[in-house]
């Protein structure tokens, strides 16, 4: 199992080289490269100039840190056809970049619009018909997660979407801070992970509050407080133990599934990624502590 750090919280504060050195200082061997304005920006065409790639590769070589995976977010489920076409073009370029970097895993979201789930579902399948042959040809493991405000926010339904292709190149990401969306506030982490089963290749670790409980988060006007509408979603990526996610249940279930020892036909080892965003000023303590807990819970028990 590769233990990675999602560098989003750092990329907003420092250069690419400094990000790599910081992750190395925290004792991580792997980086999960989330959307970055110079590399793989949200929704837009990938960039990654020769100069940027040289800067990044030099820092990786000097520290011994490696890329476990890329994260991209494109509108491949529309809801408009022009958005979908742009997203497919973006995908084709990011696959080329991944190949240049020797990265075999790309983690992504369903995207779309929860107010138009039927249209977005069809758009997503149409995009997959174009992209799956490319994933297969290039040996890329495309890992799918559902994100709050995607056209599908539910764990079991998203797992079924992934499994419907019966492809070794498509697997599932379970994001712990999204779990209360995944089962509409129940937080039954054991069921969700077990339902994903063999398709589960990647877990994102961060804490959050149950947004469906009264006043856990407050958004104005009050009609936007997630009471039967799809106009807004809200969650957080806190350190484990700062919210309401059942991490004892998560680690117990992952040990039962032998997640740490999984190796997949495409993309190699499973990935456990620390995905803390909320408090960059705490990262020097929280990031190493998260790595140590994952090691303790999944590698030494």
What does this structure look like?
- By secondary structure, the chain is of the alpha/beta class.
- Helices cover 40% and strands 15% of the residues.
- It contains 10 helices and 10 strands.
- Strands 1-2-3-4-5-6-7-10 form an 8-stranded parallel β-barrel, surrounded by 6 helices.
- Helix 2 (16-25) packs parallel to helix 3, helix 4 (81-101) packs parallel to helix 5 (117-138) and helix 8 (189-196) packs parallel to helix 9.
- The mean pLDDT is 94.
Secondary structure blueprint with pairings:
Layout: E1 2-6, H1 8-11, H2 16-25, E2 30-33, H3 50-63, E3 66-72, H4 81-101, E4 105-109, H5 117-138, E5 141-145, H6 155-163, E6 170-175, H7 179-182, H8 189-196, E7 200-205, H9 247-256, E8 263-264, E9 268-269, E10 271-274, H10 283-299
Parallel strand pairs: 1-2, 1-10, 2-3, 3-4, 4-5, 5-6, 6-7, 7-10
Antiparallel strand pairs: 8-9
Helix pairs in contact: 2-3, 4-5, 8-9
